Amino acid sequence: MRQWALKFGQNFANQIRRRLPLAGDKWHLDEVVISIAGRKHWLWRAVDQHGIVLDILVQSRRDAKAAKRLLRKLLKKQGIAPRVMITDKLASSGATKRAIRGW
What we know:
- The protein has 3 helices and 4 strands, in the order H-E-E-E-H-E-H.
- The protein is α+β, with helices and mostly antiparallel strands.
- It has one domain (24-101): Nucleotidyltransferase, domain 5.
- A hairpin with a 4-residue loop joins strand 2 (39-48) and strand 3 (53-59).
- Helix 2 (64-78) crosses helix 3.
- This is Transposase.
């Protein structure tokens, strides 16, 4: 099974991505605390204005570095920067917005 996934998995992933609708230019970034094995983790999520989930990231910390990691992952996957980025106005989100200018 593993060999099959290594051989054909990337092709399937590329075909699925091509069929997905294009993401909008307004992104909503949000984070929520979750408990995994009794430890606190943060679930970061990015959604466009049409409700399409762009990306999800789970991390054990909630700081500017974690927010930048989500943004780097999003920009790499989407290929374009958003026109508008709506956040919950936390300090980590502000660092994310500043980082997008340098991309």
